[in-house]
Amino acid sequence: MMITKIVTLALLSSAFSSLVAADASADAQLSSRIVLVEIDGAKLSLADFESKHPTTLFQARNAFYQAERKALDNFIDDYLLERQAERQHVTVAQLLDQHVKGMVGKDPSEESLHVFYEGLDTTQPYEAVRDQILEKIRQTRFMKARSAYLKTLRNEAVVNIRFDAPRAAISLKDTPLRGLPDAPVTIVEYADFECPYCQQIEPTLDRLRAEYGGKLAFAYKDMPLPMHSQALKAAEAAHCAGAQGKYWEYHDLLFSSKQLELAQLKEHARTLQLDTQRFDKCLDSGEQVKVVKAQLDEGRQDLQIEGTPSYFINGRFFAGGLNYERFRTVIDEELGVRAAQASSATLSAK
Known about the structure:
- With 350 residues, the protein is of the alpha+beta class.
- The protein folds into 3 domains: 2-56, no CATH class; 72-156, no CATH class; 177-340, Glutaredoxin (3-Layer(aba) Sandwich).
- 63% of the residues lie in helices and 9% in strands.
- It has helices spanning 2-21, 24-33, 46-52, 58-87, 92-104, 110-118, 126-156, 196-212, 231-242, 247-257, 262-271, 276-285, 289-302, 324-349, and strands at 35-39, 42-45, 177-178, 185-191, 216-222, 310-313, 316-319.
- A 5-stranded mixed beta sheet has the order 3-5-4-6-7.
- A hairpin with a 2-residue loop joins strand 1 and strand 2 (42-45).
- It is globular, with a radius of gyration of 26 Å.
- The two termini are 47 Å apart.
C-alpha cells in the first residue's frame, strides 16, 4: 500500500509538473517562487540555480522519470488486462490462460535443455539444474507471449500518456545539422567515430532519415572516448572537412570505411576532392580541437553522458544504441505531440 501511494504521488507530481511546463511563463514564475536556500538573508530560488546550472539535475530527473514511466506502463498493462477480462466475463488469470499460456507451446526437448545447460557457467550436474532451466525457459516464453498479447490490446486502445519526459536544451552551436532547422523532430547524437556501436547504428539512422524525410533533422556531437586513441583526431578531421562544406560526406565516409589512421584521414580528404593543403594544415595544427573538446565537455560534464552512442530526441534522453522500432516509436510520439500542439494553437487562435 505504501509503495502504491509513493508511485501515485510521484505520478501526480510529474503530471502537475507537465501541466505547469505547458505554459513557459507559468513555469518560470513557479521556479522563481521555489526558494532552495537562504544565505545571509538572500533567498536563492530554483530559477537562480537553473540559470547557472541548467543541466545539472537533468540525469537525476530523467532517472526518476524512467521509474515513473515503468510504473505507469505496468499500471496501463494491468488496466487493459482487467478491462478485457471484464469484457469476456472471465478473470485475468483465465484470460491469460486463454490468450497467453496457449501460445507458449510445448516444453523443449531434452536435447535442447542440454544445449542450454552447456551454455551455463555452472559446475552443478545437469540433473541438479534441469528443472530450473525448464522453468526459466517457460517463464521467458510466457513473458514474451504476454508482451505480444498486451501489444495487441494497446493497439486496439487509444493510450495517451499525459506526463512528459524531462527535456534538455541542447545547443546546436558549431554542430552540423542534417535536415531542416525547423523539422518537428531533431535527433542529437553524441558519438565517437571509433565506437563500434556507433558504427553499427549508422544504417538504422540512414533508414530513418530516408523514411521521415523533412520531418526529421539530425545533429552529430563529438564525444571521443579516452579508450579510443583515433577518435579525437577523426572528429577534428570531420570538422576540417566541414570547414570546406563537406562535413556529412566526410562523416559518412568515416563510418563506412572505419579507416581512422592519420594518413587515412588525409586520404579521405583527397577522395572527397577537398582542398588537401588546407585540410592537412587544419588537421595538423589542431584547428578544430577546441570545437571537439567543447562538445565532449558538454556531453560528459554538463549532461553527464557516460557512453556512446547517446541521443537526445527533441531533448528527451536515450542512452545506448536504440533499435529501429524504438526509434520509430519515439519519433512518432514526438510527431504526435507536435501535431497536438499545432491543433491546440489553431483552436486558440480561433
